[in-house]
Description:
The chain is mainly β. The chain has one helix at about 35-45; strands spanning about 10-15, 25-30, 55-60, 65, 80-85, 90-95, 100-105.
Amino acid sequence: xxxxxxxxxxxxxxxxxxxxxxxxxxxxxxxxxxxxxxxxxxxxxxxxxxxxxxxxxxxxxxxxxxxxxxxxxxxxxxxxxxxxxxxxxxxxxxxxxxxxxxxxxxxxxxxxxxxx
Length: 116
């Protein structure tokens, strides 16, 4: 990837930790806080677009990017692949003819069957 100027938008490949082999491409600006990147990842994975959208953490080569207010430039990330790990539990709603059932689980959980 070519070097980005502060206002230029690039794409970054993000590996999803809970789903081996899955990755997504997310736009970023090199000098914006990584919080915005985490927010875009969360939204792309089905999260909400609000101030509480920081549902996960980013890692580079297994090392946590600790401060979400720092920029990718601060961490010297110039086109490397990052790993996203969701930290929150999610709620899954399954709609049946008889009603709706809600499951609270970690992201990446697979519901195989349910009975009412």
